[in-house]
Amino acid sequence: MRAAVVSAPGQVRMEEVAKPSPGPGQVRVKLEGCGVCASNLTPWEGPEWMNFPLEAGALGHEGWGVIDAVGDGVTDLAVGDRVAALSYKSYAEYDVAEAEACIKLPESLAGQPFPGEPLGCAMNIFKRADIQAGQTVAIVGIGFLGAILTRLATDAGARVIAISRRPFSLDLAKQYGAAEVIPMDDHYAIIEKVKALTDGQFCDRVIEAVGKQWPLDLSAELTRERGKLIIAGYHQDGPRQVNMWLWNWRGLDVINAHERDPKVYADGIREAVEAIASGRLDPAPLYTHTYRLDQLDEALNATRDRPDGFLKALVVPQ
User: Fold this and answer.
1) Which whole-number Å values give the CA distances from 245 to 38, 174, 239, 248, 271, in the listed order?
2) Segment among 42-51, 187-196, 224-233, 250-259 with least mean pLDDT
3) Which residues does the UniProt record annotate as the domain Enoyl reductase (ER) (predicted)?
4) Which of 49, 116, 50 is nearest to 83 (CA)?
5) What pLDDT digit, counting tens, does each position of 147-187 carry?
6) How confident is the model at residue 127 (pLDDT cuts 50, 70, 90)?
7) How many CB atoms lie within 10 A of CB 105?
8) Which of 84, 86, 149, 243 is the most exposed, fewest CB within 10 Å of its CB?
9) 108 and 128 co-located in one domain
């Protein structure tokens, strides 16, 4: 099979490698595509602790496709089933996954891209946020995740204030139901704007979905007394400082809404399947750029640079 290999910081080469074989309890998936995650960007930059080249297909963990082989003991899945797979070398034509980490996709989703991991992540963050009708929710950072959370929170009956850097993202937030949008440009101006929109009370829930120090600081400032600050951003570029005085004074509940248990991820993916199949959620407009597998470097660079109109990249084998 063909697989992409990150051979050095900022460099990809294509290789012909043996197809992986499923072991007991595993399946092999002929991949239709794989989403590109922002968590790839630190390895792509090449930190000192990374060893290159990476394994064939490595970094790709948002794959979907059709099962073409099953290992011993697999009874709930069969060759021909179309699935979203939680696996880890999906920048390739095939990947192997644990059967319990594969979620069947219904016929109603045939032909539609389905990067299960980020969709499931959004559903799990929404559950952890405990958003209720009548609440005011600020979402700081409108990318793929922030846009989906905007839709979910709006559908739950919350009033969403979307805060983001790019005009394109703010327009998208409006399309996904945001009641108010604010450019993320001036720290104190944003605080005053949200204060005015909430009669000085600030927000019941604030979801930080950027993964940088300033948006984290801003998000805490926007959370009301006894409100919940939900950290959804992936903070991977170093330690963070927090304003513990503010956190203490307001009595904030701070939720790190990241999961590591594959079973929890799988539950989130199942919820995403139901939401999309029922028409409650339509992520299609969020898949803004598609690249061939041999263009993985371009996909990663676009994910880093975020050109105008970019939100989410998908990589397909052909």
Assistant:
1) 31, 34, 18, 5, 37
2) 42-51
3) 7-316
4) 116
5) 999 999 999 999 999 999 999 999 999 999 999 999 999 99
6) very high
7) 22
8) 243
9) no
Give residues with Cβ within 8 angstroms of 258, minimum separation 6: 231, 232, 234
Please provide residue 46's backbone torsions phi and psi, each rounded to the nearest 5 degrees. 85, 60
Determine, yes or no, domain membership for 264: no
- Which domain range does residue 56 map to? 2-113+287-316
Two structure tokens written together for 206 = 């604030």
Bridge-partner residues for 13, per DSSP? Answer: 5
Name 318's Cβ contacts closer than 8 Å, sequence gap at least 6.
292, 293
Cβ-contact 218, 183 below 8 angstroms: no
> Is residue 8 one of the residues assigned to a domain?
yes
Q: Using a cut of 0.85, tell me whether the model's pTM lies above it.
A: yes
Same domain, 163 and 249: yes
**CATH number for the domain that contains residue 44:** 3.90.180.10
**Crossing angle for the helix pair 167-175 and 144-155, to the nearest 10 degrees:** 30
